[in-house]
Amino acid sequence: MFRFERLDWSVAALAEAATAAFALLTIDGHDGEVGAGAALGLDGLVLAMSRWSLAHGAAMLCLDGRLDAFAAKEGADIDALIAGIANQIPQHLRPSGASTPSNAKQRDA
Q1: CB under 8 Å to 24, separation ≥6 — which residues?
Q2: 96 DSSP 8-state letter
Q3: Tens-place pLDDT, residues 23-73
Q4: I need a labelling partner for 67 at 20 to 30 A (CA). Which of 17, 30, 60, 73 fits?
Q5: Does pTM top 0.70 for this prediction?
Q6: Rg of the chain's alpha carbons, rounded to an integer?
Q7: Extents of the domains making up the chain
Q8: Can you tell me whether residue 39 is helix, strand or coil?
Q9: How far is the CA of 24 from the CAs of 41, 72, 74, in angstroms?
Q10: What's the CA gap between 3 and 95, in Å, rounded?
């Protein structure tokens, strides 16, 4: 999401966070080990990059204030808009057993 070349990969916390984030993208997309060194195969790579693209696009719209602008124009709540976007993620891109944000709220209530 940020300029890759500007990140200081010698910072252990950054490297650990990146590995953990990539592992989330690869859930169900590989056999065995997760992380930057995991062998994904083409199908696993497609799955991980699709998830990353969706998350990156929504995050950039949010950071740029575009989601807020559209929500305000329509009189919509920004949290409801973000939850709605998350609910639109195709089922085949969701990790096995993952619930939608609306299901998670109902389950936690």
Answers
A1: 95
A2: T
A3: 888 877 555 555 555 678 888 888 888 888 988 898 899 999 999 999 999
A4: 17
A5: no
A6: 16
A7: 4-108
A8: coil
A9: 16, 32, 33
A10: 27
